[in-house]
Amino acid sequence: MPIAKHIENRSVETEISKSYLDYAMSVIVGRALPDARDGLKPVHRRILYAMRELGNDWNKPYKKSARVVGDVIGKYHPHGDVAVYDSLVRMAQDFSMSLRLVDGQGNFGSVDGDSPAAMRYTEVRLQRVANTLLEDLDRDTVNFQPNYDETLQEPSVLPAGFPNLLVNGSEGIAVGMATKIPPHNLGEVINACLALIEHPDLDSDDLFSYIPGPDFPTRAIILGQQGFRQACRTGNGRITLRARTEIETDKKGKTTIAVTELPYQVNKARLIEGIAELVKERKIEGISDIRDESDKSGIRIAIELRKEAIPEVVLNNLYKHTALQTNFSINMVALVDGAPRTITLREALEIFLRFREDVVIRRTRFLLKKAEARAHILEGLMVALDNLDEMISLIRQAESPAAARDALCAREWSGAAVGEMLIRAGRKAAGAVYRLSVEQAQAILDLRLHRLTGLERDKIQGDFTTTLAEIADLERLLADRTVLLAKIAEELRAIQSQYAEPRRSEIVLDADDDFVAEDLIPDDPVIVTLSHAGYIKALSANEFRTQSRGGRGKLAASVKDGDFLEYIFTTTKHGVLLFFTDQGRVFARRGYQIPEGSRTARGRAIPNLLPLDAQEKVATVYATRADADTQGSLLMVTRQGTAKRIAPDQFTRIRSTGTRAINLREGDSLLAVLATQGEGEILLFTEAGRAIRFAETEVREMGKTAAGVRTIRLQSEQDRVTAAIALEHAEQKVLVVTSDGMGKVTTAEEFRRTARGGQGVIAARKPIAGAALINGEGEDILLLSSQGIVTRIPANSIRETSRTARGVRLMRLDAGDQILAVERVPNTEEGEDH
Questions:
Q1: Using alpha carbons only, what angle is made at residue 73 by residues 69 and 76, rounded to the nearest 5 degrees?
Q2: Domain limits at 113?
Q3: CA-CA distance, 643 to 681, in Å (whole number)?
């Protein structure tokens, strides 16, 4: 016969919507998100409970992982064995869990991403700390629920003696939401709990002093606290993790970057492969070899560098392009009262503490009920001891045990001694006459004869007194919340003292969350040289030590035949170098990006540093700082005497391919870029020995594509401007150096101020190679010759003369050599003739 069915009309849209919502909630609640109380997902909770039921404790022998997985699947979690085993493995990995809950024996994977051995080969048992999550489970502390087929009961949550949600963190993807909670240090989290118990009005900002940040099992370095603070306040934030590295140099001068700690969840083997690929594609330069030297003692990745490589630059590139520096996005989503919710740090602690209150109250009630039941039996035994002869006689006369029990319950018995003990314990006595309950009568009948000896009688009295005191303590704990909270704090301290470990992850408080390349590079002064053929290098300013006036000097660089040093200037490793080219473009590089070399090294070809066109050449370089004040102007001066002023903020963001700085007339090139305040004076010198001084305001501010205005009328087509100086006042001293090595210091007012566009006044009777402003004590002058010889002399050793004087010998030159450039540098060393 056909079976009658109830058919309900429902639209497809409604049915799909309802079914998908049911599925989504099932995934959210039943699989993907942790409970805010014990910090566990259902699969982890069921694994721990199944191991407890198997007797797979920390002090018992290991059991095969396959047996545990089988019990979990068969009894509580009817899903795939791979998913269950993966969850079991994660709880045993010291690089995944801040506080491991499972003790594994065998291959449980590695930070290289190696898979664990099959479950039939590995063995597990509970870690001792897992007992603090399972403890008191049999004391009615939490609710139990039927398993999937309703044949067994399983806990809906574990009693959890510590805030496991924060200590071990959690990660999962549900339907339409996800959670990613980082692990924290157990000791710090418990300190925050204790502080919140004592001061319930603490806010998230106050809790930072107890929990300064996450604490990852793989250690590494956390940059800054801003992202963590935001996550604590809102439940969402981002923190930056950086590997711990050391720059090592052996006796042969070989430099190695050693990586000893990795950011959380970084695959070491994949990281090494990624670095090798970047080196192969030349996205990172300076690395000669990569070795994995990790062993049982810990992680060690050795990255060997080439001889010319700058370790800090290579390291910063590794941070930028590889997983040596990663971001961890915090999303604190957990189940609260069965529903998903984004919680803050304070809320996570409050939820745990409220849960612990409930657990301790339920445990106390359970123990109180048990103690009262025992006290009731002991009270009956005490009555029996007071009326022993009569009871024995009554029992002997009874026809059966049931009749004896009824007879004991029917009579009234003397209980003066019991009453005194109850009164001493602060409890109400029933009076001088007692009537026994059925339970008490049965206990008397079950009493063995040896309990009637004197020692056993004293033991029963002692047990009764102890039980009454225990009942009083339990009742006081239930009646006074202060006592209850003190009990919770005491248990937290006990867990802390037994399992807390020092913090693993270092927090760099002054660091920015956003990586800045120069974070690890000291802002030391450097001297940058650029040859006529386009070879550039950086040297420490201390490479050139102070010499007496007239000395031979030191070799600044080795140059090829036909090449010579053309520019020398000072900056710092954090300084921004603006490279202005002869075609009117500008490029930006940092001081640490300039390859370092020895005094005799030639340097690196400038096309390897800047993307120059085939016929393009760097004409001048201007050194500034990224944090420099953008007020004032930049005055650009060309060889043909054209100048224009431009606002510095025009060059704050320069494309890697360069940007237009000035439009040059045919045959002209750029000489200098001066930083001015807009109200000073400009002093220009020409190769023909002329000088012109005019007000800066005569050159108006223009855009990047402007060509500028004329500043001086040159003496001939071969004449050119060789030096440009920005003056603050006319009393400033100026050093003028001629091409034959002679020099003189004079005040700027010696050069009569005129309007721009004139031919100026005579500054020297010989070709002027360059000029520099002399500010006073504590500075030296670097003289650079066309043969690559540099001399460093104290500026105050050059005597002051008039504009028309010949000057003094500053540098002895070989035949055919001449002074090419003049540069003022800080005096960084003391002494002479070094």
A1: 120
A2: 33-160
A3: 13
CA distance 722 to 189: 68
Distance CA 272, CA 89 (A): 25
Q: How far is CA 152 from CA 26, 76, 145, 146, 322, in A?
A: 20, 8, 8, 6, 50
Count of residues making up the chain = 834
User: Which residues touch 424 (CB under 8 Å, ≥6 apart)?
Assistant: none
Does 696 have pLDDT greater than 50?
A: yes
The per-residue pLDDT for 346 is 95
Least Cα distance to 635 among 624, 627, 645 occurs for 645
CA distances from 190 to 135, 187, 199, 505 (A): 18, 5, 14, 17
pLDDT for 502 beyond 80: yes
Shared-domain flag, residues 475 and 537 = no
Q: Does any domain span residue 340?
A: no
The answer to whether 568 and 789 have CB atoms below 8 angstroms apart is no
Whether residue 371 sits in one domain with residue 315:
no
The pTM of the full predicted model, rounded to 2 decimals, is 0.68
CATH of the domain at 468: 1.10.268.10
- Cβ atoms 380, 437 nearer than 8 A: yes
Q: Which residues are catalytic?
A: 121
Contacts of 710 (CB under 8 A, 6+ apart): 641, 642, 756, 757
> 140 burial class (0-12, 13-18, 19+ CB within 10 angstroms)?
middle
Distances (CA, A) of 780 to 68, 158, 624: 78, 75, 20
Element (H, E) at 235: none
